[in-house]
Batch of 4 targets.
Target 1
Amino acid sequence: MSDAWWKEAVIYQIYPSSFLDTNRDGWGDIRGITSKLDYLANLDVDIIWVSPMYKSPQADMGYDISDYKAIDPIYGTNEDIDTLVSELKRRGMKLMMDLVVNHTSEEHAWFLESRSSSSNPKRDWYIWRDPKRDADGKPQPPNNWSQILGSANSAWTYDEKTDQYYLSLFTPEQPDLNWENPHVRAAVHDVMRFWLDKGACGYRMDVINLISKDQRFPDAPPSLGPDRKYHPGSKYYVNGPRMHEFLQEIKHDVLEKYGAVTVGEMPGVSDVDEIMRTVKRGTGELSMIFIFDIVDIDNVPGETRMTLQDFSVKDLRRIVSKWQKVMIEKDGWNSVFVENHDNPRSVSRYTDDSDQYRTYGATLLALMQTTLNGTLYVYQGEELGMRNFPKSWDPLKDYKDIESINFWKKSLDLYADDPQELARQRKVLEKKARDHARTPMQWNAGPNAGFADEGVEPWMRVNDDYREVNAEKQVSDTSDGLSVWQFWQRGLANRKMHKDVFTYGGFEEVGADSEEVFAYVRTGKESGKWLVVLNFSGKEVEWEMPKSIQVQGWMAGNYTKGKPDKSLKGSVALHPWEGVLGKMI
Ligand code: TEU
Ligand code: CA
């Protein structure tokens, strides 16, 4: 019945700066991670994926790496990683590292050499182009592409010394590597071997579908409007011309030799054939990828991530059902996730984070995720139903993310005389900022939520609700219901017990005309048929069970610790954000 160990694994993402500080500098560290392994084992986590801990000037929180083979002193040492790996091993757990090789930091030795002169042997390790000239002869970027983390700016950064521009898709501090150069690819393979040799089980691969650029570097269509100078050039670098070739090389030169597990972060691609080339059993390059459809659900198409659009349960149902079916029919493999460090908190975004409904909203999402095929990812704090921080937080002081800062500066600049539009932009910031996922982990009701000692100032402000929402309270909860943490723990155990159905089973949507409910039937070789009914609305709903479905008993739900007391046929009454799991005949 087992297919591959990593398909059944629960992967927990740690954002190291915000996990646990053990040396009173206000930053989380590796020792903090090691000290919490029992907490994670208790939840039923198999792999931890830790966001970048390498040496970095932290322009983009470690996604700008200046030395791939050294741990940044704020997080600890390479020896701390050895200890972490052996402590994980003792518990039957594994470490997944974050591989960020679309770009380096501008402070990486390779880039320092590259920019030192036009004739340096490493010049061609990055993407250098001559300027265009305006009427006054002043240098202008080679094309109109905008920066991903600051759309008001060019994706090209001018270098005075050599009078050329280098490509820096995310920020000027993150120059893009030139993957056309075979020496660059060999250097990346070498970095990959380094951490696998140290005992990592594999990699989460940052924007790995951006590594191959259309070498003509054409102008992008003006999708942000005629008044804007720069526009997303995504169609010329998302899943670019040589991406599969580069990934095949990695597969053969590195991954296969180690049996490494990989998850490719692949924003901006939803095409089935393109995705199957990457993740089809046998011929695919990677174990699985992160498909962005769910986390992009509220973006305005063609614009940047920092936009807002309404969505409904129909959209969620369409996306989830599509990928469940595609992966089964075409023999691929997917990841299941609704949170990471680049998105607001799921309970705030997809359900209701009010005091009244937060627990139900968070457990509804847990019920959905623990009953879908794929490798399951839980982001730190998601298991507690941590929510977005309050609207009242100061954009200039409490937000730390470069994307948020650039976005807010741009808004202040563009809409200085338009208070209404500025208010609209402020709402986008409040709802979509990546900062929401990056507040310190809420361990207990003590000072700094237990993230750092009393008297220490955390690098980022702790969410105001930590006395109510914290791990200590939820792990030991003895009230009538289950806490979010306890619900996750039970759900993960149940998922593993019935992996034939919840990880590998058949999937069929039911009652797909509902305005509120997302329901599906899962079928397993040994565990039979199960029905999942999720009320994605804040209303009391009467859900009409299709005649073809025969429920034998309701086994679990998010409103009660025991078995839900509900009608077995006809109309099933559901509370706001209620989800139930039934065993079918
Ligand atoms: O993110 C890449 C990415 O495209 C998004 O998730 C990104 O947050 C969004 O498009 C911005 O609007 C990865 C990392 O996860 C992210 O933290 C880094 O900032 C980025 O790559 C650059 O390394
Ligand atoms: Ca620390």
Target 2
Amino acid sequence: MNISQNTVVQFHYTLKDENGDQLEQTSGGEPVVYLHGHNNLLLGLEKALEGKSTGDNVSVTLPPEEAFGERRPDSELEVPKEHLMGASDWQPGMLAVVNTNQGQRQVKVVAVEGDKATIDTNHPLAGQTLVFDMEVVDVREASDEEKSHGHVHGPGGHEH
Ligand code: ZN
């Protein structure tokens, strides 16, 4: 089966920056699972995967504007250290999770002083050109319920 609107796709990926340094990879762990054609994935990745089938490999390079956006310079913020989640001994360069009006997001700690931390609220991958090497591991037709909800149910998807 080929990837098209309303197929449920599983794929592994390796993410590298434009220098070829590896940033993330899923092989050895669980693949990504998503419902194709419902804005669940970066559009550039969905476009690259369109028409592919199980076993296919596809590589795509996304400039920042098609990935996580350009870095905004005015995005540093001082917060109480206790608002940072994910670790306890905070050091500059570490990634933390914070609660915002738009839900949880990942931020980078740029400085720590006393009980305060300065965080950079840009997406950690903002401003970067990203290379995704993907391998399709499964493609199936979505259920009617998944299509109406716009996301995948079951393992790797929504449990409700
Ligand atoms: Zn649902």
Target 3
Amino acid sequence: MLTRLIYASEATDPLTPDSVQTIVTQARQANARRHLTGMLVFDHRAFLQVLEGRREVVSEVYGRIAADKRHRRLVLMDVLPVDERLFANWDMGFAAADALGREQFLRFGGSDSFDPHSMTAAAGLGLLRALSQHVK
Ligand code: FAD
């Protein structure tokens, strides 16, 4: 069964661009092996991530992500069965939140800054889809 999961979290400590890149590179490699697709957004503090794949795989990987000490305040925003992938072209797309800017944060989140903890799952998904247009 194909499943989509969305969560928000925040970095435990300030992350350098190199440490964020390490997370993205590892995630891309691991996800490609598991046929997991998705998108990760980061803005110096907050993360917003969507994962799509087989239910068992999404569940297992989310368990490992949730145990990762590099972030905290994990909020599971949504997990649901889906008919098709929305992020089929990326093993794990990545974008800095400021690629969109204030106008889109207001459109999706009702705030002029990136604050995924205050977003609904639908708004988070909308933002992730908009940001996915900015990544290769
Ligand atoms: P191990 O590799 O055994 O690591 C154990 C713990 O060590 C980790 O939980 C972490 O706290 C720490 N650790 C591991 N590597 C580093 C490092 N380079 N620097 C500092 N501490 C480290 N994994 C995926 O497979 N797919 C994803 O989509 C994905 N997305 C992620 C998104 C975020 C925001 C974060 C923070 C991590 C993500 N990860 C993802 C990584 C995931 O959390 C696990 O680290 C990874 O799956 C390996 O799991 P493991 O149990 O083998 O941990």
Target 4
Amino acid sequence: MNKALQAVRGMRDVLPEESLGWQAVESTLTAILKQFSYAELQLPLLEFTDLFARGVGEATDIVEKEMYVLNDRDGDSLALRPEGTAGCVRALQEHGLLYNQTQKVFYRGPMFRYEKPQRGRYRQFSQVGAEVFGFAGPDVDAELIVMCQRFWEALGIEGHVRLEINTLGSGGARQAYRDALVAYLTPLRDQLDEDSQRRLQTNPMRILDSKEAATQALLAEAPALIEFVDPESVAHFEQLQNLLQQLGVPFLVNPKLVRGLDYYTHTVFEWITESLGSQGTICGGGRYDGLVERLGGRATPAAGFGAGLDRIALLQEVVGSANLPKLVDIYICYGGDLSGAAMQLADRVRSALPTLRVRTHMGGGNFKKQLKRADGSGADWAVILGEQELADGTVMLKNLRNGEQEAVSEAQALQRLAAASPHISA
Ligand code: HAM
């Protein structure tokens, strides 16, 4: 097939049935974010490439090899955003919203990374992210984590994810550890895998994340990050653990968790599932107290997370916890030339039952054909309007699942539909 008629590799079409799952995840997450008083910040998909180089870090995989970069007609180098945090800081800073004030915002939408596509990993994927500015304490870290826990509970996947947390300490502690790790690994360089050899120069802490068994064996004797962490960060981390215990959120301390973006300090965390194979991280985040300053602002404590919608929707599907609406709930059939009356009836049904999806038959045909379509649409109910019903002021209400039908007044039909539809009050 002509290549131009296929989706670009790693760019996915989310088809209508799957979209229902997505919308359910996105609306659940954003409803909870609003409950926690986070406000939406809508950000552009394009930013100057340099924002990510400075924000996420030159030596990270994301910036080094995964960005979609283009030159616009002015010769500026722009990048499709690979993540949301840098753009969020840029926007709040640019609009003076970080000066002497606190902020709690969320964003959603597509991110782009040129990674090797596989199940759960795409080149265009979607995140819901939250960011908080102006609070230095562990209570904010805990609130972000609790909010995630509430997401998973609302989606029925809380039994399929685990929370891993770690502390990277202050920027200075991180640098001291980095130096110690390089000093330890440099004599062993030849025994490291190829990726780790490269990272030894560029981003040594990412070696801790290596999936290679031989590299992990060498790391067993390496200096431990926690030994370098300053006492203040240790206290912050202990308070966070204390809060999580009080709030009943189970966690595991993973001393090797470092995350793939350079801006983190202190707390980092990931939510991981075993049900999606190797792409099991459904959400990741942490504190990034140095980023605002690094991007030209005043030193501002900050923390946040990004949750991957593609993976969350996939996980819900895998564990069967999705409780999805149908594409069509009610199918309206009509006789002869009553299409105008049928469309009016459909409008009244939509006004009375605003959460239900009402489809009016289109394209003519006898009742038999229309009812076949009604059945094929997945709707549970057909509302049938014929000449007789129109004259009597009634409709024929047919339960498409058991085939029973009855002539009732329109008001009665609406009452029965309301009573029979579980998501009507949603
Ligand atoms: P991240 O860990 O790079 O963090 O991405 C967050 C989440 O996005 C991941 O846990 C994963 O669920 C999803 N994700 C990442 N890459 C892909 C992909 N190629 N395909 C599908 N899903 C993917 C960040 O982006 C940070 N900005 C999070 C953050 C916000 N930290 C502080 N504030």
